[in-house]
UniProtKB/TrEMBL annotation, chain A:
Phosphoprotein found in the keyword field: yes
Domain spans labelled Carrier: 6-81
Annotated protein name in UniProt: Acyl carrier protein
Record key words, sorted: Fatty acid biosynthesis, Fatty acid metabolism, Lipid biosynthesis, Lipid metabolism, Phosphopantetheine, Phosphoprotein
Gene Ontology process terms (BP): lipid A biosynthetic process
Spans traversing the lipid bilayer: none
Gene Ontology terms: cellular component: cytosol; membrane
A Pfam family this chain is assigned to: PP-binding
PROSITE patterns: CARRIER
From TrEMBL, chain B:
Pfam families attached to this UniProt entry: ketoacyl-synt (PF00109)
Molecular function terms from GO: acyltransferase activity
Upper taxonomic lineage: Bacteria, Bacillati, Actinomycetota, Actinomycetes, Pseudonocardiales
SUPFAM superfamilies the record matches: Thiolase-like
Protein name: 3-oxoacyl-[acyl-carrier-protein] synthase II
InterPro entries: Ketoacyl_synth_N (IPR014030), Thiolase-like (IPR016039)
Domain Beta-ketoacyl synthase-like N-terminal: from-to ranges: 52-182
Organism: Goodfellowiella coeruleoviolacea
UniProtKB/TrEMBL annotation, chain C:
GO MF, any single term: 3-oxoacyl-[acyl-carrier-protein] synthase activity
BP GO terms, sorted: fatty acid biosynthetic process
PANTHER family: 3-OXOACYL-[ACYL-CARRIER-PROTEIN] SYNTHASE, MITOCHONDRIAL, POLYKETIDE SYNTHASE-RELATED
Family annotation (CDD domains): KAS_I_II (cd00834)
Native species: Goodfellowiella coeruleoviolacea
Protein name (database record): 3-oxoacyl-[acyl-carrier-protein] synthase II
Family annotation (Gene3D superfamilies): 3.40.47.10
InterPro entries: Beta-ketoacyl_synthase, Ketoacyl_synth_C, Ketoacyl_synth_N, PKS_Beta-ketoAc_synthase_dom, Thiolase-like
Domain Ketosynthase family 3 (KS3): 8-406
Family affiliation: Belongs to the thiolase-like superfamily. Beta-ketoacyl-ACP synthases family.
Top-level division of the source organism's lineage: Bacteria
The organism's taxonomic lineage, starting at the top: Bacteria, Bacillati, Actinomycetota, Actinomycetes, Pseudonocardiales
Alphabetical UniProt keywords: Transferase
Length: 83, 331, 409
């Protein structure tokens, strides 16, 4: 697993919780957006779009499959920041 | 086919949210409306306060007003919800111009043109409000958005009659909604029909069925006609004459008329019902709020039962429309 | 079997008007369909700088000045120009005399997704480029979407018609045709001019792009490697009348409207719902009095997105069992023309019935095994078509399915 900075992690978590309409203590690194938090495909795209804007990156659509929980999202952001 | 009837209604306007607020506001002699000198708005309409926090994060005002009006109607008339043959027909001008323009603006101003919010993409499409109302109340029948500006609500009522006549729905929730936003205000102020006067917002919905048991009014006829270069007053005269003929009612029998922004000359002695004097020009909601005002007035007027009312509206330079109703009065 | 109907109860298509990105006018359009022509090219309507890819299916070679005779072109937004031109073509194609039409009671219904959003985009572009206060105020009168239908009446000089614009997004064309069918069968009108129109705009392209549903190059419906839609534009309008009326005046008949179905998923704002789509197909077949086994061809909504095509194919299998008829997507050629899509597709169905061919699904490489349909890849085929189904599915879960049939000669 790639490491993100604490600041990045906090920004990602805040952004995800805002979109999923959850408080930050309801979401863990491994709780799943779809299965555990009822997110649908549009919510997943919202997360992708918000990350792109927040970190000024472009995330490949194929990465959606990996963005199932916070840990997955952090990995995707790190990969996108490198390219 | 049997005549469509209106069995329940709701309204959201500068008088407030719900039928009771509308009745009270309309019955009061003056005032009682929110807004600035040249605008009227639904007082204190905060989407989250009215509709709750869930599912409202990205909701625009047009959808919020629509959902509020439909929820009030479903509350008035619980039997309409969850029915497989309940349809929804919404009159609009062009959906939320504000949402469409804000989305384009966000694209043009972003560092990259696709750094936009996907959650608001559907807000920029005209059928957004009708679709959201269907989701909220599980209305799986026909779901139609009619874009006609000031004649949209009457056209929605006409379309509702056709759905019932063809057996495509058992109950139709039909109405019209308009939002007051900077985009709407600019469009109004730069067109002939909205250049002057007070601009308002709101909406009203009606449960329309062919089951006459709880009827508040029979919808005897609804007509709309293209102007196609014809004189507006002449066209309205033709439209009203045709509707009265269809209803089988002589002009002399008309008790009340809600002329809206039109000139209807045929009824010298009729009671004039003009909610727009208080609520402002409400675009696609206008015909619906006029109809609500007629029903509200009839309900508090002894002897209104059995009498005829005409509701008329004009989309300037384009279309005239009218409806002829027989009031059932207090049930 | 079809319940007995009198010729007054039967509704037929007698005139077709087309403004499309693969041909203008019904005969050019038919040639384009038969040849499997593609409307795809880089978008020119707006500046696409910053998007990784921006193909679309725009109309080229369309001169509204050459078609419109009454209404000044500048008074109309781009989508309305398409609608008005297509309506005029449809009336001419039907061999109807305008003077005669003026005396008759009619309906004009035009479906649209975006109305004049291209004009709204222009207002915003002005704001961003020049700041507030520089907008072209003349656009205000042409933006209300009601203009799409009222301008058709104005151009044709029809004062005894009811103009209705139906904004049910990408199912709007079928909604509009269905409305004409009901009005004619109820005996409320003597003719109906119905269809749909939309113009390519930044707002809608950007929306679909952000949702990850714009294909990088071409639209490949039902293909294993499909990547999405291309936004398109145009208008399809039809003249409808009762069979009695058509026979009386010896009009050419392209097809009969056998029935249609409408419903709403009431489930999700953008994701289609398999069971609800299947229910809509059944509603349409029941309305038409047609059994699934009688249907010879399905013109699918077939957007070419991952979600739509598999959901739609499964819904078709739910209704048709193991062996559905051939299922084609015109969006492979035309792109997604939004409110015009199901109207242009209905016209394509009518032309397919008349000229005895099935238009192909182009850009096809390998059918998605999850779809399990014969999409008539890349080459049109000859076919004797009696009954054709035309699907229109939209954002908001607005579904509309139309059933057309060959009218016995």
């Amino acid at each position: 697993m790639e490491l993100t900075t604490t600041d990045q992690s906090a920004r990602i978590k805040r952004l995800v919780c805002d979109i999923l309409e959850l408080s930050e203590d309801e979401v863990t690194d491994t709780s799943r957006f779809a299965e555990d938090h009822g997110a649908d495909s549009l919510r997943a795209i919202e997360i992708l779009a918000a990350l792109e804007k927040e970190f000024r990156i472009v995330i490949d659509q194929e990465e959606m499959a990996n963005m199932v929980n916070l840990r997955g999202v952090e990995d995707v952001v790190v990969r996108a920041l490198r390219t | 086919m049997s005549t469509p009837v209106i069995t329940a209604w709701s309204a959201v306007s500068a008088f407030g949210i719900g039928r009771a607020a509308f009745d009270t506001g309309l019955a009061a002699p003056v005032g009682g409306v929110a807004g600035n000198a040249d605008t009227r708005e639904v007082p204190g309409f905060d989407i989250r306060d009215v509709l709750g926090p869930r599912g409202t994060r990205s909701m625009d005002r047009l959808t919020g007003l629509t959902l509020a009006a439909v929820a009030e109607l479903v509350g008035e008339h619980a039997a309409v919800a969850e029915g497989t043959d309940t349809a929804l027909v919404l009159g609009t001008t062009t959906g939320s111009a504000q949402s469409a323009m804000a989305f384009t603006r966000s694209s043009l101003e972003a560092e990259r043109p696709f750094y936009v919010d996907p959650a608001v993409v559907p807000n920029g499409v005209m059928n957004r409000a009708a679709g959201q109302a269907a989701i909220r109340h599980r209305l799986i029948g026909p779901n139609t958005t009619i874009a006609g500006g000031r004649v949209a609500a009457l056209q929605a009522l006409q379309y509702a009659g056709r759905l019932l006549g063809a057996g495509r729905a058992g109950t139709v929730l039909a109405g019209g909604v308009e939002e007051l936003t900077p985009a709407r205000l600019w469009l109004e102020r730069n067109s002939a029909q909205g250049r002057h006067g007070v601009i308002g917002e709101g909406g009203a919905f009606f449960a329309v069925t062919t089951d006459a048991r709880h009827a508040l009014a029979d919808v005897l006829a609804v007509r709309s006609l293209a102007l196609a270069g014809d004189d507006q007053e002449k066209a309205m005269r033709r439209c009203v004459t045709a509707a009265l003929a269809r209803a089988g009612v002589p002009a002399a029998e008309v008790w009340a008329v809600a002329p809206g922004n039109s000139t209807v000359e045929l009824f010298d002695d009729a009671v004039v019902i003009a909610p727009e004097d208080r609520l402002g020009e409400t675009g696609a909601a206008s015909g619906a709020l006029q109809l609500a005002a007629v029903l509200s007035t009839a309900a508090r007027t002894p002897g209104a039962a059995g009498r005829i009312a005409v509701i008329a509206s004009v989309e300037h330079g384009a279309v005239v429309a009218c409806a002829v109703l027989r009031l059932r009065g207090r049930s | 079997m079809t319940p007995y109907r009198t010729t007054d109860d039967r509704v037929v298509l007698t005139g077709l008007g087309v403004v499309s990105n693969i041909g203008i006018g019904a005969s050019e359009f038919a040639e384009g369909l038969r040849a499997g022509r593609s409307g795809a090219a880089p978008i020119t309507t707006f500046d696409t700088t910053g998007f990784a890819h921006a193909n679309g299916c725009e109309v080229t070679g369309f001169d509204p000045e050459a078609v419109l005779t009454r209404v000044p072109v500048d008074d109309l937004g781009p989508a309305t120009r398409f609608a008005v031109a297509a309506a005029r073509m449809a009336v001419e194609d039907a061999g109807l005399d305008e003077e005669l039409l003026r005396g008759r009671r009619g309906l004009v219904s035009v479906g649209t997704t975006d109305g004049e959003s291209q004009d709204l985009d222009r207002l915003v572009e002005t704001d961003v480029r020049l700041g507030a206060g520089h907008r072209d105020t003349r656009l205000a009168e042409r933006i209300p979407a009601g203009r799409l239908s009222s301008s058709v009446a104005a151009e044709l000089g029809l004062t005894n018609v009811e103009p209705v614009t139906i904004g049910t997004a990408c199912a709007a064309g079928n909604y509009a045709i269905g409305h004409g069918y009901d009005a004619l069968r109820a005996g409320e009108v003597e003719f109906a001019i119905c269809g749909g129109a939309d113009a390519v705009c930044r707002k809608t392209f950007t929306g679909f792009y952000r949702l990850g549903t714009i294909a990088p190059d071409h639209c490949r419906p039902f293909d294993r490697n499909r990547r999405g839609i291309l936004t398109g534009e145009g208008s399809g309008m039809v003249v409808m009348e009762t069979l009695t009326s058509a026979l009386d005046r010896g009009a050419p008949i392209y097809a009969e409207v056998l029935g249609y179905g409408l419903n709403c998923d009431a489930h999700h704002p953008v994701a289609p719902d398999r069971a609800s789509v299947a229910r809509c197909i059944r509603l349409a077949l029941d309305d038409a009095g047609v059994a699934p086994a009688e249907v010879d061809l399905i013109s699918a909504h077939g957007t070419g997105t991952k979600a739509n095509d598999v959901t739609e194919a499964r819904a078709i299998h739910d209704v048709y069992g193991g062996e559905p008829p051939r299922v084609v997507s015109l969006k492979s050629m035309l792109g997604h023309t939004m409110g015009a899509a199901s109207a242009l597709a209905a016209i394509a169905c009518a032309l397919a019935i008349t000229h005895e061919f099935i238009p192909p699904t182009i850009n096809h490489v390998e059918t998605d095994p999850d779809c399990r349909i014969d999409c008539v890849p890349n080459q049109s085929v000859r076919a004797d078509l009696r009954i054709v189904q035309n699907n229109g599915l939209a954002f908001g879960g607005n579904n509309a399915v139309l059933i057309l049939g060959r009218c016995p000669r």
